[in-house]
Every structure is written in structure tokens, then in C-alpha cells.
Amino acid sequence: MFDSDDDNKYTPEDLAANRGFLGLLASFGLVRTLRYLPKILLPEESILGLTRGLIKIRPWLLVITDLRVIFLGTGLFYGIKLLDIPLSHIRLVFHRLGLFWGEIIFDCGETRTRIGYIRKKNMPGLMAILSEAMNGSAGQAAAQPQAATDRLAQLERLTVLKAKGTLTDSEFMAQKRKILSGR
After folding, report:
1. SS3 of residue 75 by DSSP
2. Backbone angles phi, psi at 172, to 5 degrees
3. Which whole-number Å values give the CA distances from 150 to 156, 157, 168, 181, 182, in the listed order?
4. Rounded to an integer, what distance in angstroms lies between the CA atom of residue 115 and that of residue 5?
5. Partners of 101 in beta bridges
6. How far apart are CA 51 and CA 151, in angstroms?
7. pLDDT (tens digit, 9 = 90+) per residue, 122-164?
8. What are the residues whose beta carbons fall under 8 Å from the beta carbon of 80, sequence distance 6 or more?
């Protein structure tokens, strides 16, 4: 893993400057994925940690950012393959440790993504980074259901007013559009 012990956030340029890390990725054929990383990162997104592992016997780069978990893999015919999971969609994260290797399983409800053959010594740092990132995104995700509940309550009150005859159909539709648009 790339210096997971300190609290710095890394840019792709920082990663490219780390020759030892690039050598590790080269042994797995993942240097191309690291070069692709700046193209998919959002402007406000920061890299918290990364490592490499295997998904279904193929090498993948696992990147943890403050917004999502990104999996980048290479293939002979398809070039770069991308899978990303927003932190708010991750329900549970399981991990297992073997003698030399570890694996992480991301449970998103309907799907599970498993990445294995992660160096055992990297697992505690990765799990700490994941926990921190997921706890940071939990506060942002908690505000969204509250807004949806408020809109639902407003629509219910609007429906009651229409049923009582207080609102006309056109007034009801205008107010409904206003609530649904978030104004």
C-alpha cells in the first residue's frame, strides 16, 4: 500500500513519483491503470489509499477516495476496466486474513465485490482508511433521506388540501412541481 500510515491525501503525481510502488504495480501489469487514474478522478476527489489485488484471477488496482471506492483493471482486449462504488452505497465491508494475504468484500445490497490477494501487512491500514472514508460519507448521506421525507410529508399535506377542495387541480400541480423540484 502507498504510505497508508500518515493522514496525507495523495495526487496521482505523488503516486507516479513513488518508484517502489510503480515497480510493485509493474509486476502485476497495473502501471497503465495508474496513468488512467487522473482521467477518472473528480476535481474535488482525493485519494486516501490504494493497493493492488486480484478479482477473479485478474490483477486490479483498488483506490479508496473520499467519495468512492474505485477498481481499475487491465485486459488484453478491453483496455482499462473500471468499477466504482460510491461510499454511500456500501452497506458492509468484510475482510479476512490468511497466512500471507487478505481479502476485502464490499457488500452493496444486491451485489458483492471481492478483491483478494492483498498483502496481509496492508490490511489494517486499508481497513482504517475505509472506515474513516465511510464514516465521513455517512454524515453526507444522512441528510439526503431527511430531505426525501420532508418532500413526502409536503406532498401528503398537499393531497389532503386538494381532497378537501382547498386547492384547485392547477394549484395542486403547480405546488407539486415546486416541491419535487426542491424549491
Report:
1. strand
2. -60, -50
3. 10, 11, 23, 13, 10
4. 21
5. 119
6. 42
7. 888 889 888 888 887 555 555 555 555 677 778 788 888 888 8
8. 32, 33, 36, 72, 73, 74
